[in-house]
Write a structure and sequence with these properties.
This protein has about 220 residues and is mostly beta strands. Strands 1, 2, 3, 4, 5, 6, 7, 8, 9 and 10 form a 10-stranded antiparallel sheet that branches.
């Protein structure tokens, strides 16, 4: 195969693979949604709920999970009307298949910031043990429900929205987002960012971080 053709195909493949899914455009924090009088409170089942994450760099990718610590969602049987979720940043896990356990633990500790001298590289969980997401509204875009809320991470609060599917009945509520992408530097997670540091060459980590949220809740 012609070298230039091969290079073009390879570059196109990489670009498609790394194309951001449902890229979030963060805005200023908004007032929390006020639940309607008809709304019931659904307590999140933390054992059945999770946040999945994925990060990439030129040489590969890492993925994992973060636990939900607690939270409630207010809803009628027709719509979500409010709620707040607390995220346990100490629970960050790396779930890469085939990864050496020593390397897995090392990466988890680096992400958490529990390695001496590297506390501020990523999430610095000793200083910021939790993150929060507080619902500010539900909108619709191109026929798709969009959940809107304030994401607070490392004391930085930005309003974001992302597509969801939800199912609500008298006893239970389930919610699952489509995979969406945030720019981590908007929350001052700057380590290895080519947009922040100009001397990294190919030794950078993508600013884009993919998230998928899965929540199960029971009426309280």
């Amino acid at each position: 195969m012609n070298l230039f053709l091969f290079t073009g195909i390879a570059a196109s493949t990489i670009a498609c693979k790394n194309e951001a899914k449902n890229k979030v455009e963060p805005g200023e924090a908004k007032e929390a949604a006020t639940p309607t009088e008809e709304a019931a409170t659904y307590e999140i089942d933390t054992t059945a709920s999770t946040i999945e994450w994925r990060g990439t760099k030129p040489t590969g990718e890492h993925k994992g999970t973060i636990n939900i610590e607690s939270g409630n969602i207010m809803a009628t049987q027709e719509a979500i009307t409010g709620g707040k979720v607390t995220i346990d940043m100490n629970s960050i896990k790396v779930t890469d298949e085939g990864m050496d356990e020593k390397d897995r633990t090392s990466l988890e500790n680096h992400l958490k910031g529990t390695v001496e001298g590297k506390e501020t590289d990523f999430f610095n969980v000793k200083k910021y043990p939790t993150a929060t997401f507080e619902i500010t509204g539900i909108t619709e875009k191109d026929g798709q429900k969009m959940l809107e809320g304030n994401l607070t991470l490392k004391d930085e609060t930005k309003n974001i929205q992302f597509p969801i599917d939800s199912d609500i009945d008298e006893e239970e509520l389930s919610l699952e987002s489509e995979t969406f992408t945030i720019d981590r530097t908007n929350w001052k997670v700057n380590y290895g960012s080519k947009s922040v540091f100009d001397n990294l060459g190919d030794n950078f980590i993508s600013d884009d971080m993919e998230l998928t949220i899965k929540v199960k809740a029971k009426r309280s």
